[in-house]
Amino acid sequence: MQRTRPTDSRPNRARAQRSTPEECRSRLEQRLIEHAEPVLKCTQVLKGHTYQLAAAVSFAYNVGAGAYCGSTTAKRFNAGDWKGACRAMNEADNGRPQWVTAGGRVLPGLVKRRTEERALCERDL
């Protein structure tokens, strides 16, 4: 099966090209590597912590490496508060959901994504 992708990584159906699943996987892997590097640079403590690193890279892939590196999650990882770092992926200190809105609205897809990232992050803690 082929997938449609924009030629410049931005939505633009008029210039879309077909890609194989292998090409899509390869591009995704490259983008994840691009996000893993800044995550490891600002939270070096994640080296060797597979689940927490995977969750942090997924989070950074979605919110941006700069936002991740300035986040409570990154600060808590660096402070050694691993459970607090994972919790901060989708919950503020006051218990309210965070990182789940776009355009001022809570998006169910972001709620699901953050819940999954947090669950992955909390594995083996």
Automatic annotation (TrEMBL):
Q: EC number(s) per UniProt? A: 3.2.1.17
Q: Name one GO molecular function term.
A: lysozyme activity
Basic and acidic residues composition-biased segments: 1-11
Q: Name one GO biological process term.
A: defense response to bacterium
List every stretch annotated Disordered.
Answer: 1-25
Catalysed reaction per UniProt?
Hydrolysis of (1->4)-beta-linkages between N-acetylmuramic acid and N-acetyl-D-glucosamine residues in a peptidoglycan and between N-acetyl-D-glucosamine residues in chitodextrins
**Family matches, as SUPFAM superfamilies:** Lysozyme-like
List keywords of the entry alphabetically. Antimicrobial, Bacteriolytic enzyme, Glycosidase, Hydrolase
Q: What Pfam families does the record tag this protein with? A: Phage_lysozyme
Q: Which InterPro entries match?
A: Bacteriophage_GH24 (IPR051018), Glyco_hydro_24 (IPR002196), Lysozyme-like_dom_sf (IPR023346), Lysozyme_dom_sf (IPR023347)
EC primary class: hydrolase
Q: Which family does it belong to?
A: Belongs to the glycosyl hydrolase 24 family.
Tell me what this protein is called. Lysozyme
Species of the source = Burkholderia cepacia
User: Source organism lineage?
Assistant: Bacteria, Pseudomonadati, Pseudomonadota, Betaproteobacteria, Burkholderiales
